[in-house]
Amino acid sequence: MVKIYGNLTANDDYTHELGPEQNFNESVYFNFFDPTQNRGGFVRIGNRANEGYAEMTVIVWNPDGSALFNYAKPAISHNNGWDAGGLEITIVKPAEVVRTTYNGTAYFLKDPRAMSDPGSAFRDSPQQQLTIDLTHEAVGPMYGHVGEAGDGNQFARSHTEQHMRVSGTVQMGEEAPIALTGHGLRDHSWGPRYWQATPSYRWITGNFGDDLGMIVRTNDEGHGGGLFHEGQDLVRITKTTLTTEYEPGTNYHKTLRAELELEDGRRRLLEGRVMGYIPLRNRRSGGNTHVGEGMTEYTLDGERVGYGLSEYLDQPKD
User: Fold this and answer.
1) Exposure of 284 by Cβ count < 10 A (0-12 exposed, 13-18 middle, 19+ buried)?
2) pLDDT per position as a tens digit, 204-253
3) What distance, in Å, lies between the first and last C-alpha atoms of the chain?
4) Residue 166: which residues within 8 A CB-CB, separation 6 or more?
5) Angstrom distance (rounded) from CA 182 to CA 185
């Protein structure tokens, strides 16, 4: 039986009533990684119905670090589900099972770092057909919170997360479908959102099997918290000290080291190595928010190996 923590219900898996805010956003995000073939990625769609469009992103990294990637802003007029730009999210059993499918084109990026200049990357990269069909099954509890309207939160007023087991297929171009089996994390948020409303964060997610997953959240100075799921139980991280190594001359994270203190008194050490990287951005009103996505291999306490995504967000310097 899947536990639900916080002031959530299973029905919070579905979309919610469209809010009055012009920038109301309801988004879902699913990352996934197959450790047997070093292949992973994520899909995300955010409904911005009051602005008349959705934000849709898909990426699949190949073992050599290349990737198939697409981003689009398809027109939408309602918030009655997630189905736009070729990406569809189906809630099979709330709080337990979700299906994600994508059927469309994607750009083949030999080096995804080319997305530092999206215009050139799209012009210079060939397109291929990409088909994704994945089922995400809960291995941990659903947790998060429902915020209050008008509380001033302009980023993620209401929010859920959950660690998942993932299986299905990915097909690229004319190649035969590739079976994918692994783990990942899903994220769902709703309420007003400006990507520019939060100064900076590091969001480090990973799975070590059905029984263990983690989320570490910090600011750009490396301080924060997070949690582990151990089966259906949550153990809070009360203190995090994160240090990051960047690629020379860039803000592209390369390795990370997080010293963690848990609420039960344990201390844990998380080390990460980025295996595939793409620099993304969100532009609004002159702002150019950097969102660096790293497909990451983790080692916990020097022994247990896991995989996931590390996301580093920064606002442009004055």
Assistant:
1) exposed
2) 999 999 999 999 999 878 889 999 999 999 999 999 999 999 999 999 99
3) 49
4) 30, 32, 34, 134, 135, 136, 137, 180, 181, 182, 183, 184
5) 11
| CA distances from residue 79 to 71, 101, 188 in whole angstroms, order as listed | 19, 18, 14
Q: Which residues contact 243 (CB under 8 A, 6 or more apart)?
A: 222, 256, 257, 258
pLDDT tens per residue, range 106-146: 999 999 999 999 999 999 999 999 999 999 999 999 999 99
- How far lies 271's CA from each of 233, 295, 300, 301, 302, in Å? 23, 13, 7, 8, 8
Q: Domain map of the chain by residue range?
A: 24-314
Global pTM value: 0.96
What values do phi and psi take at 198, rounded to 5? -115, 130
Angle at 282 between CA 279 and CA 287, to 5 degrees: 115
The answer to whether 224 and 200 have CB atoms below 8 angstroms apart is: no
**Angstrom distance (rounded) from CA 236 to CA 249:** 35
> What does the chain come to in residues?
318
- Is the Cα torsion angle 36, 206, 63, 254 positive or negative in sign? negative
What is the DSSP code (8-state) at residue 147?
A: P
Topology at the third CATH level for domain 24-314:
AttH-like fold (2.40.370)
Please calculate the CA angle 261-31-138 and round it to the nearest 5 degrees. 75
One DSSP character per residue, 19-44 reads PSSTTEEEEEEEEEEETTTTEEEEEE
